[in-house]
Amino acid sequence: MDQVSLVIILFAALLVPLVMAKFKINSLPTAVMEIIIGIILGPSLLNIVSMTSSISQLSTIGVIVLLFLSGLEIDFSLFKKRRTALTPLEAKQAGNLPKYSPVRLSVYAYTTIVVLSLLLAAAFKVAGLFSDFWLATILFGTISLGIVIAALKEKELLSKAFGQTVLLISVFGELIPMMGLTLYASVYGSDSQSLWLLLLILAVAALLLLRFKPFFRFYQNINKSTTQLDIRLAFFLIVTMVTVAESVGAENILGAFVAGIVLKLLQPSESTRERLDSIGYGFFIPIFFISTGVDLNLRTLLTSGKTLLLIPLFFLAYMIAKIGGFWVLKLRFKHANAIAGTALTATTMTMVLAVLRVAKAMKTITADQSGAFLLAALLTCIVSPLIFNKFYSAEKEDLVKTAVHFIGANLSTVPVAQQLRKGWYDVQMYTNHPQNYKTYHAQAPVELMENFTAQDLEDHGVFDTDILVLGHIDAERNYELAKAAHDYGVRRIIVRFEDRNVLNEHEDELRELGIEVYNTPEANITLLRSLIESPSTLLMLQHTENSIYEVRVVNHLYTNVQIKNLQFAKDITISQVIRNRRIIVPNGSTTIQYGDRLIFTGSKQDAPRIRQALATAN
């Protein structure tokens, strides 16, 4: 019976996404459908699958892997110092929106969730509906990070301010309840250790982080398809942190979550993350969700009058606990999107399942209460995505042009700025030479500054841009300003170097930071050589209908896809693929990977649209 039940579960896991694709069911997350299928297969309806010891063990591994992958999803770059508000130009185009960063908004929003969760838990206790105040607070404050990420990816919002804000609120909605659950289990659990031992989890995590920090710098050189060192490291981290967590009286899911954070800080490649996703979402996690539905016996639950009363009350509590986020999101985003974001953060399933699993093991909750909490959470995952998809529309600030700031107005930079202004770019130039200002300010938007120190530029908003071009003739100054801009968090920096003899080490240092370096002599030499070797190069560059473009692929919709299968393959010609600083000459069967830089030619009408699609992070 064990093997038959497992075969049925695995077949159901295979069938669910196929059926959803066939009937175009996009409004419900796959995880919710898997739980529903589990309910149908279990004792609630068909009763052809039963929970066995082997399925229970696989389900436990599934929740551990799920929480590990959730920790791996946290984008710590959002917490770095970078522009925290719109630039003056963006503010003007976006209707002078208030200057609130995603980090600040998320902190405010989740603070309201904590306060409302405490009040709701107190109300349930006073009314005699649920007496465990702290457990109720933890449950009402949870948010399903995985479901939120899936919804944001579908609309390609993870790179937008709105998506980053909702994502961070969800991170808090998984991390804070996780810590709360650990403290709850430590205080009320029968076999829990002293609270101070929980610090060992962080100590071991820090030790692993320091020990394996250089891992991804050299493993590519020794990795083989038969070794898969990065995947071995991932599972070593999982097992180590889960073992440590259980040894100090904490929950295994906390160890798994911390292991995911450790691996994220080690900065694995995108291919590593995709293979881990394949292992998790391809096998273990579907078993966890389907077995959760199997374990839920609706026949028993729905015969209890108290359970029938608790389901809608718990559902309302889940929704009301998140409602304070609406007024916080309204500080920066439009009314409809504030509703959409609030609704999306009301989805709660992953952590509810984990919390209920722990509470049932501690015997602090009855089966009826657990079922009511779970069914109410299931309802949020059905209702909330529907509300989100109904109300969300693009923000004005998402439609602004790419901001490009030039430091230095001269014969090399002004013509480039003039041409960029004709496209989807907002250009601003800065110079500290009065004579250059007089010469060029009528031809391009040039602003005169007295000094070009890093602090002056930062205070003046020069670093608040998408692309910063350091085209000043002073190479030493460009070097210093490039490092300052990188520390500030400018997304892309292009630096001009003319003094090759003095600054070779500086150039290497900047390249290591991901800063792009160029110099006029090399550019001229490269162009002349190209003209000699390929006479049509000049024709290509000067062609009025077609041009050469470069784009970095960060849209998952186009990764792991062969070039010949791209939906716009007939509209462009990809001549080179740059991967890990190596040039690949592609053919139709070449598979595009995340982070690849594509050099392609296409019409000036189609290419910008295609480049934007490939470069939109989701």
From TrEMBL:
Superkingdom field: Bacteria
Subcellular location: Membrane
InterPro entries: Cation/H_exchanger_TM, Na+/solute_symporter_sf, NAD(P)-bd_dom_sf, RCK_C, RCK_C_sf
Main location: membrane
Keyword Transmembrane helix: yes
This protein's UniProt keywords: Antiport, Ion transport, Membrane, Transmembrane, Transmembrane helix, Transport
Bilayer topology: Multi-pass membrane protein
Keyword Transmembrane helix among UniProt keywords: yes
Ranges annotated as spanning the membrane: 45-72, 107-127, 133-153, 165-187, 193-212, 233-266, 278-296, 308-329, 335-359, 371-388
Residue ranges of every copy of the RCK C-terminal domain listed in the record: 536-616
Pfam family, one: TrkA_C
UniProt similarity note: Belongs to the monovalent cation:proton antiporter 2 (CPA2) transporter (TC 2.A.37) family.
PANTHER family: NA(+)_H(+) ANTIPORTER YJBQ-RELATED, NAPA-TYPE SODIUM/HYDROGEN ANTIPORTER
Listed name of the protein: Cation:proton antiporter
